[in-house]
């Protein structure tokens, strides 16, 4: 186990844009838990540019980086199609690793990473931050409280693409729920000319709509909907995650990033919905960093449920004011740090990431077969403890 008296030494492996604008500042903001010591890139030019921006040595040879700077863990941040190759390289060099999403483009690559990590005794966490965002965390706290009873069905309705959307959908059901089969439908449609926020272009566009149904061994059902222009089109402004439970329901209603949560139980007479009030509490009445979210349930047995931001400043007004996505990604990194320091497994981990990617690939394969259901691999085949067969009910708190 790593000595808790010193910061864990971090190398950023990869020179994607997120390495510079997200991971570098996040690692710095998590001091003294971690310390950024080096960066690696395939290209000398891009590695030098990132190293200069972050003020640390740069390398194009990972073995040389390890010899000179002795990192404990790597944050792998490369283009998505390179996740499997570079993630495996980091693990084979004996580094604990935070891998970007998806864990790998193919399941074979994901399995190779997991096997290499097990062989070398290193920990892997995957940067699936959507369920770690504050508003998702308070919903998971409410579900864990038992107020809603069992969640019967869960929906990703444009809340996130691919594995992100699948992860949000599964989080409401519980990451321990075992998926059996997936049915999918994928279609291409033309769209009227309009502005693309991400590309900065105007003109006719093409969208890919993906629809899927996941059936679970418990009888629960997950429904997935996504459009390829869901993040940057005025034609597709809807964003929602939903769950239908034994004693209530939850619905997020969003226009782009302006999302409102509607969570309801029953009034005492059982005749009307009892809406839960969510209170985002900041450091000051006029702003500042997020301190906590308090859910006022209306239930006399459990009137409040609270999620506390683990990254709130220790001293009022003297700290970083991270937005919700940064809080989520920081939760991924601290999950890995906790596993390295204390033993045990990260709260999400490589098997959950593999399963999310497996569901996405099965949905696409089902669509190619005309909607024929695709059976998923039996969970836990070759899995270490903490794999999908024996995971907890829902992801752990940050």
TrEMBL record:
Keywords annotated in UniProt: Oxidoreductase
Domain of life: Bacteria
Record-annotated Gfo/Idh/MocA-like oxidoreductase N-terminal domain positions: 8-126
PANTHER family documented for this protein: BCDNA.GH03377 (PTHR43818:SF11)
Name this protein carries in UniProt: Gfo/Idh/MocA family protein
Record organism: Deinococcus petrolearius
Region (Disordered): 367-398
Signal sequence annotation: none
Keyword presence, Oxidoreductase: yes
Database matches in InterPro entries: Gfo/Idh/MocA-like_OxRdtase_N (IPR000683), Gfo/Idh/MocA_oxidrdct_glycsds (IPR050463), NAD(P)-bd_dom_sf (IPR036291)
Ranges of compositional bias, category Low complexity: 378-398
Classification via Gene3D superfamilies: Dihydrodipicolinate Reductase, domain 2, NAD(P)-binding Rossmann-like Domain
One Pfam family it belongs to: GFO_IDH_MocA
């Amino acid at each position: 186990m790593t000595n808790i008296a010193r910061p864990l030494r971090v190398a950023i492996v990869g020179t994607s844009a997120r390495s510079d604008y997200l991971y570098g500042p996040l690692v710095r903001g998590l001091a003294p838990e971690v310390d950024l010591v080096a960066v690696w890139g395939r290209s000398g030019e891009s590695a030098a540019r990132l190293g200069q921006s972050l003020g640390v040595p740069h390398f194009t040879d990972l073995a040389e980086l390890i010899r000179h700077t002795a990192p404990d863990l790597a944050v792998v941040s490369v283009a998505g199609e390179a996740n499997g190759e570079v993630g495996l390289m980091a693990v084979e060099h004996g580094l604990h690793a935070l891998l970007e999403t998806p864990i790998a483009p193919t399941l074979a690559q994901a399995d190779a990473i997991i096997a290499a990590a097990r062989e070398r005794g290193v920990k892997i966490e995957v940067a699936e931050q959507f369920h770690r965002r504050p508003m998702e965390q308070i919903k998971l706290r409410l579900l864990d409280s038992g107020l809603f009873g069992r969640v019967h069905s869960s929906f990703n309705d444009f809340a996130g693409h691919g594995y992100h959307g699948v992860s949000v959908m599964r989080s409401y059901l519980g990451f321990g729920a075992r998926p059996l089969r997936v049915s999918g439908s994928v279609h291409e449609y033309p769209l009227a000319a309009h502005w693309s926020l991400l590309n900065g272009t105007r003109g006719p566009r093409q969208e890919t709509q993906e629809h899927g149904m996941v059936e679970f061994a418990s009888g629960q059902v997950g429904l997935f909907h996504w459009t390829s222009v869901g993040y940057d089109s005025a034609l597709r402004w809807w964003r929602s995650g939903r769950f239908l439970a034994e004693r209530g329901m939850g619905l997020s209603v969003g226009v782009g990033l302006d999302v409102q949560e509607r969570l309801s139980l029953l009034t005492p007479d059982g005749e009307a919905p009892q809406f839960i009030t969510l209170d985002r509490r900041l450091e000051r009445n006029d702003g500042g960093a997020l301190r906590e979210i308090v859910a006022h349930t209306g239930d006399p047995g459990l009137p409040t449920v609270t999620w506390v931001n683990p990254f709130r400043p220790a001293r009022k007004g003297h700290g970083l004011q991270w937005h919700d996505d940064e809080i989520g990604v920081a939760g991924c990194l601290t999950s890995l740090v906790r596993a390295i320091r204390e033993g045990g497994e990260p709260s999400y981990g490589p098997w959950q990431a593999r399963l999310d990617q497996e569901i996405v690939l099965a949905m696409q394969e089902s669509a190619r077969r005309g909607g024929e259901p695709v059976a998923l691999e039996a969970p836990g085949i070759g899995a270490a403890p903490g794999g999908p067969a024996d995971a907890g009910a829902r992801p752990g708190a940050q």
